[in-house]
């Protein structure tokens, strides 16, 4: 992940990143965005609601 | 009565009958902790004065002819994310050491205490429950009693190791993606992750509120069932606790497996593990006479969505401290929490939508079967300090891969039990049993059948 993109993500939530932490955060965020792409590719019908409070 | 090999149900029966005194049991347990815990590092706090005072109360109740409760005199300990009156609730962190002491015990701790069990202390964990190994940079790693050069698993590693070592017969842990099941399997004990919302989490430090469960670890199925019976039920203090009335499981263990449809999970659950982990499931299936297999759909997507929800929520829970003092977090958890805080809302919401959809997919599986068998972990306990492992010729991060058989089921709140397997390898492994929501009794009936066939691991005596 390039530095400018990481900065945009961090600015979006007002979360300053320590220079020492940036490489690890960039790697972890890249991995999470790859997982998000896996979820986005799954065919979930439009009418399915999110389940933040969940009753099994 | 030898505490190290005695089960909670046996201790309670002896204390209730006046054949053993809680004070003597607690004294023996405190001595065992003092002698053996320094090498294992399970406990972050030992509550000798409180435990001895509570033991005296139990003994007085028995002497006076009052009912001392179904867990009378049973020593137990809890992962240090449960509130314990008088202690700061660490949740494995350095930051929370600055918190004032808790004013009262967590709901689950109170339930065990009201049943006569005696709290001995608080147990080590991965910082904020974010990990599968209990390699905690602030408090040191908890070591596996079966081989102290290896991890105990996590994040409830102190809970699993304390039970496996015979320091306590019963412990509480929490499980978001596998944090009860993984350490229980790696330490060779039983663990129960209940249906989501079935045991109150009130008074615990949450990791990912949408996915967090609490539950017991023990060395016998009857102990697990008795603890679950005491622990579960409605609690208005936990916003996700279900209003469903309790359904006791202990009386049902004698029913056997008649009428239960059991199948081995195919596909994902037959890949990505070491041969002995996969073979453990085959052995359990043979022991139970199970020949059927069934496919669980889209496990990899469920795992991805569970990881996104977990870290997005955890990043939000800790956002204030991540902004102000990121350096005070454990380096082993910090970068993932920071990354989770940066995730876009659309990624999180899509994961929650997939969760709603996946619930329906797994309900369809459980229209066909009552109990699924899977491995609990893909490997035995790794050596302390190991970051990566090789699976099928590909190198993967242990931290993530070790939960590959547990995440998809907690993702949709299904109850799971891990049963310890012995004799296959020098080190313990677990077989995971999974059922439809609220069917904990089915799981415990199958676990009891396996236990009766000698599947259980023994506590480590020295």
Q: Work out the helix count of chain A.
A: 2
Task: Please count the helical segments of chain B.
Answer: 15
What is the residue-averaged pLDDT of chain B? 96
Strand order of the largest sheet of chain B: 1-3-2-8-10-9-16-17-13-11-12
Total beta strands of chain A: 0
- Using the alpha-carbon principal axes, give the shape of chain A: elongated
Compute the number of structural domains of chain B. 1
Write the CATH architecture name of chain B.
Alpha-Beta Complex
Which percent range fits the helix content of chain A? 40-55%
| DSSP summary, beta strand count of chain B | 17
**SSE pattern of chain A:** HH
Q: If you average the pLDDT of chain A, what whole number results?
A: 92
- Radius of gyration of chain B, CA atoms, in whole angstroms: 20 Å
Description:
The complex is a heterodimer of chains A (56) and B (462). With 56 residues, chain A is mainly alpha-helical. Chain A has a domain at 3-41. Helix content of chain A is 54%, strand content 0%. Chain A has two helices and no strands. Chain A has helices at 3-12, 22-41. The relative contact order of chain A is 0.11. Chain B has helices spanning 8-16, 22-40, 48-63, 107-114, 157-164, 181-187, 221-231, 275-288, 299-317, 319-325, 331-342, 345-368, 398-401, 407-411, 440-452; strands at 43-46, 75-79, 118-123, 135-136, 140-141, 143-144, 147-151, 170-175, 190-193, 213-218, 262-265, 293-294, 371-375, 388-391, 394-397, 416-421, 429-435. With 462 residues, chain B is α+β, with helices and mostly antiparallel strands. Chain B contains 15 helices and 17 strands. Chain B is globular, with a radius of gyration of 20 Å. The two termini of chain B are 17 Å apart. Chain B has a single domain, classed as Amidase signature (AS) domain (Amidase signature (AS) enzymes). Classes of the chains: A mainly alpha (56), B alpha+beta (462). Chain A binds chain B through residues 9-10, 12-18, 21, 24-25, 27-29, 31-33, 35-36, 38-40, 42, 44-45, 48-56, and chain B through 195-197, 210, 239-240, 242, 298, 300-301, 304-305, 307-308, 311, 319, 322-323, 326-327, 334-336, 338-344, 347, 349-357, 359, 412-414, 437-438.
